[in-house]
Design brief:
Rossmann fold, three-stranded mixed β-sheet, nine-stranded mixed β-sheet, 12 strands, globular, AB_hydrolase_fold, alpha/beta
């Protein structure tokens, strides 16, 4: 069943949330501190058995210089420097095994998959702690809601920006051709990075989480947004403080600062990330920089939180090739 507004109303729906007056100062200070504390990344070759792909176990400096893990996969026979895809993961997801996924590296891109600090699920636990706290299942959305300085997503968004910083500095990658991508939580992170780090070649954002928190908490009764409902039911006097904190991480506010070409998707039957919250971020993309942006959104009518699945991925593949220049294969010498 449809979970939100009909398509004609989604096309005109606009974000009606708040934006803090010190939003830019807050994030500039946060990122400056992380970059000052950063150390050179460590890359260790990992055996995977994959033919044609070299995989590195990467540790880079994220929030406040804290170590963050990632996989970096490089195609062996594509000419350098490589266009790069930086991928962010869904809520509760971890970077997983070293040999998955391989689509982007198989197509000739450098591909970095960032771990989600402190997150875990039945599908695996992150290799990255949240400071001194081991990964947990669920609950990170409400971690530190009393202030933006302590909120969990301040740390995760900083990690995500530093992931782009890290690949941009590698000899084998082209800093001018970096695309960020993600679905659900990963989509929300990709929006935030596009707003926080200029110079990206593009972004692919699918059924994003972390958009227009207050509306989402009003119209869905599913996790992760239901974590906010659970939290506020027991703390009714903290409602305004909670949504003030969340305004610093709301992807709709970050989208207003983004300039890179972007392709969004939303699903009409999504019970997790309702499409109106996605459109709230989409319509703000580029708003603070003149409102002129190369952006488009695909609306999937008979889809839930899986969105367009492989059909959407195929569309992203063509988009990324167009904005970065499709990678070419070096000819292997015979004999």
């Amino acid at each position: 069943m449809l979970t939100d507004l009909p398509p004609e109303q989604l096309r005109t729906y606009r974000f009606d949330g708040s934006e803090p007056h010190d939003f830019d100062e807050f994030w500039t200070r946060t990122l400056d501190t992380a970059r000052t504390a950063a150390r050179p990344p460590r890359l260790r070759t990992t055996r995977t058995g994959l033919i044609g792909i070299t995989t590195y176990d990467v540790t880079f400096s994220g929030y406040d210089g804290q170590p963050v893990r990632a996989w970096l996969r490089l195609p062996r026979h594509s000419p350098r420097p490589l266009p790069t895809v930086v991928e962010y993961l869904g809520y509760g997801c971890a970077r997983g095994p070293a040999w998955l996924p391989t689509l982007w590296s198989s197509l000739g891109y450098a591909h970095l998959v960032m771990d989600n600090r402190g997150q875990s699920s039945p599908y695996g636990a992150a290799d990255t702690y949240d400071g001194d706290t081991a990964p947990q299942t669920g609950g990170v959305l409400t971690r530190g809601l009393t202030s933006p300085e302590h909120h969990y997503y301040r740390r995760l968004f900083t990690d995500a920006v530093r992931a782009v910083d890290t690949v941009a500095e590698l000899d084998e990658t082209d800093a001018r051709r970096i695309v960020v991508t993600g679905s659900s939580q990963g989509g929300g992170i990709a929006i935030a990075v596009a707003g926080l780090r200029p110079g990206l070649a593009g972004a692919c954002v699918d059924v994003p989480f972390l958009c227009h928190f207050r509306r989402a908490s009003h119209i869905v009764d599913t996790y992760p947004y239901k974590e906010l409902t659970d939290y506020l039911r027991g703390r009714p006097t903290e409602i305004e403080q909670v949504f003030t904190t969340l305004s610093y991480v709301d992807a709709a506010n970050h989208a207003a600062r983004a300039t890179a070409p972007v392709r969004f998707s939303a699903a009409l039957m999504d019970p997790v990330c309702p499409p109106s919250t996605v459109f709230a971020a989409y319509h703000r993309w580029g708003e603070n920089t003149g409102g002129v942006a190369d952006k488009a959104i695909r609306l999937w009518e008979y889809a839930g939180h899986e969105g367009g699945g492989t059909a959407q991925l195929a569309s992203h593949k063509e988009f990324v090739a167009a904005i970065t220049g499709a990678p070419t294969r070096a000819t292997r010498r015979s004999g």
